[in-house]
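Question (not urgent): is this output format expected?
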Amino acid sequence: PHTSPLQTMISRIAGANVLRAARANIAPRAMAARNYQSIDKDYAGSEGKALLMTAESALAKSCYSTIDWKISEDTTVMDMLKKMVANNIGAMAVTDASGKVVGVVSERDYLSKVAFLGKTSDCTNVKEICTYGFSNLVTVSPQNPIERCMEKMLGRDVRHLLVRDGKESENIIGLISVKDIVKCTHEKTKAQMNRLEDIITMKNIADSAV
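Got this back:
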């Protein structure tokens, strides 16, 4: 059937309006694809932080941030074990007489240097079994990406990292475990998948609206 110029114009205007409406609804529809009821600035901010996980992020999530994670080098291994069991942890930072962190001691140190050798926990001090001296410690700065933390753990075969208060500093401000690294890595992976899903969904909606 013959289409009048007026019908053609109306059809074009309607098509343009549909396209504009579809494009305007890309973001909400993309988020709906992720089954979210709504999205706000707080959520967007938290997802952005998850994409930038660092040692500081791990420290904030760590159980070590809520307990006394230091122990004197003169403490007996038995007392060290009691503290570890009480707090359900596997390592502690070792301090000297001035309170400075000079080492780290772990449950593996106890197993290999006390239990395996038949020594007595009551007669052995922490200094005798710990990794001693700052140059021997595996440390990270708060700004180190979570991937760098994981690389250090794998490269040095350790399950805990001491956190310095700066890149060149020897002042230790915290301790993080492999569990904390896994938590951060998991959150970052989820955020990356969500971001990629948004991009793909928005592109599909944009393409279908053309």
